[in-house]
Amino acid sequence: MVIVIGPQDPGSSAQGNDAVWRAVTVENGVAGSTRSFAQNQLSDFVSAVHRTSHHPDRIRWVWSSTNAVYPSLLRAGVSVSRCWDLALNQTILRNAATLPSNQVQYSPAVDLRTSEPAPAGHIPPRHDPQQVSLFDAPTRPGSRAEPGIDQLVEEFAAQKGAVDDSPGRQRLTLLLAAESQGALIAAEMYHEGLPWNADIHQRILHELLGPRPDEGERPALMQELAEEIGRTLGTSRLNPDSPQDLLRALHSAGIEVSSTRKWDLMAWADRGGSSSDQRRAMIGPVLRYKQLYRLWTANGWHWLDEWVRDGRFHAAYVVGGVVTGRWAAHGGGAMQIPQTVRDAVRADPGNVLTVADASQVEPRILAAMSSDRALAVAGQGKDLYVGIAEIGQRTGSALKDRPAAKVALLGAMYGATSGEAGSLAPHLKRLFPEAIGVVENAADRGERGGQVTTWLGRTSPPPDQRWFDTVKDVSTASAEARSNTMARSQGRFTRNFVVQGTAAEWALCWMGEIRRRLRSGGENGGPMSTSLVFFVHDEVVLHGPESEAQVVADIVRESAASAGRLLFGDSPVDFPLTVETVDSYAEAK
DNA sequence: TAAGGACGCCAC
DNA sequence: AAACGTGGCGTCCTTA
């Protein structure tokens, strides 16, 4: 059963909390019964429908945007099993329709584009969630009128029709369902939050930086380092925060680097023969300073004040925020929590964290989508890179150890042409022609300005007119060089798009399956107490009672296999995980 | 003085 | 050593 909900009348966000909303049941594409309720009665309405339904889990709630509706339901303690996020699905369909070979005919009934992608949860952490009403979210600053229920019903029909009439309907349907499910998960993870122990975080900061400094002051241990650097380089009152000043000081000390980058400095230190110890001593304090500077500015006391509330870090995910379909996150650097502070992520007493990491997902995805049997077999029951190295040794190929196999395979997916990855590329192609064929094909298309699609049908955006203009211009040698650079760059993008995007689809299905099982894995088919609390591309973190940990580990593993089957049928590709039950995130490697 | 680019580093 | 994909973000620094 499908139920579309939305405001009775189109209007702006000015409508009050008592605005009239309607719920329209849609059966076989036909709008049926209609019920009305006040917007502030939304959660009551949804739970009443759930109570009176024989199969509440089979209801698909259709709404303009999960971000605009679902957080208030969660705050009222109401969750739903399935939804259809019209805004997210519109984005996918619009893109799909730009590529004729997809044969997707889609004209939106209403424009649901937002000028900015809206983070899940949408509540700035400084504010009290209870005081935020439904539509004061940063959802559509474009001041477009909020669509009314009739438009939403029409739009749903337009989307459903576009999918059903397309040759790729099965996969596309799965993609839209997975994307929408992702929106639910993102909102739920935002709501729940990642358990974050501020005391431990502060201990880490104190140990590495010293006591919290006054506003505008440098932490004590950084200050000491700054002075030491000044002495070592012979530049008094040097400000290491300024790359310009630092580079000047390095040069005046005879350190010939072209930038102040970590790698540049390390390379300089390792260049020298006999004096390399001396060189390391010179740049050592600089490197340490940079490390501390990063911790202080990115995940220091300010970050803690800003982002951790009541022992939780609420990551605001942006579903589909990356062109490839990966999620992005807005605020707090949620997807770049550095190793140095991960020890602050701690399970509540009596609970544990389950950290699950999918091993070598992207190459495995490539194996599955290319039906490359050799690559699939290489990863069966073992680390895929190790498997490749074993084949390499047997066949006398240059891919003779794990590091070589890894660099070669990543290089193939990123489009590396030079260095070790570049020189290993032909060897890889000889062993796995089908897999390499898929990425080369995607790159070829991209270089010519064409578009590519993921396994489920997410379509890459076409390059803009400026790109075509630049690529066409080969009038001079430098123009031709520019043309080649642009073309190759686009080729690397489309090359990576198919793999990264399909991996994102696998991850969506993986999480969706985990969620589905958690919701019914408890007593009498009820929900378990464990929930998903964190996600980064190919890794999930769950938090819940220790007593559930064993079952949760099984669920996470089975869901990975299930996601593989959902996408690729009975493909021989394995999707193994590293699953660890821990008290601290830092314990999970 | 605000905006935006450059830089550099973090994550996968 | 760099070059080889997708991002976020804080700071410095230049420009309007």
Automatic annotation (TrEMBL):
Keywords: DNA replication, Exonuclease, Hydrolase, Nuclease. It catalyses: DNA(n) + a 2'-deoxyribonucleoside 5'-triphosphate = DNA(n+1) + diphosphate. Residues 338-548 form the DNA-directed DNA polymerase family A palm domain. Pfam families: DNA_pol_A (PF00476). GO terms for biological process: DNA-templated DNA replication; double-strand break repair. The keyword Iron-sulfur does not apply. One of its GO terms (molecular function) is DNA-directed DNA polymerase activity. Transmembrane segments: none annotated. SUPFAM superfamilies: DNA/RNA polymerases. Its EC number is 2.7.7.7. NCBIfam families: PRK14975.1-1. This is DNA-directed DNA polymerase.
